[in-house]
Amino acid sequence: MLFCRAALDLSRSARTFVADLIRKHRCRVGSWWRRLPPGRQALLVLVHLRRNKTFAGLAAAFDVGAATAHRYVIEVIELLAELAPDLQQASDPHLDIEGVPDPNTSPGSTPTHPA
Question: What is the value of pTM for the model shown?
Answer without folding.
Answer: 0.68
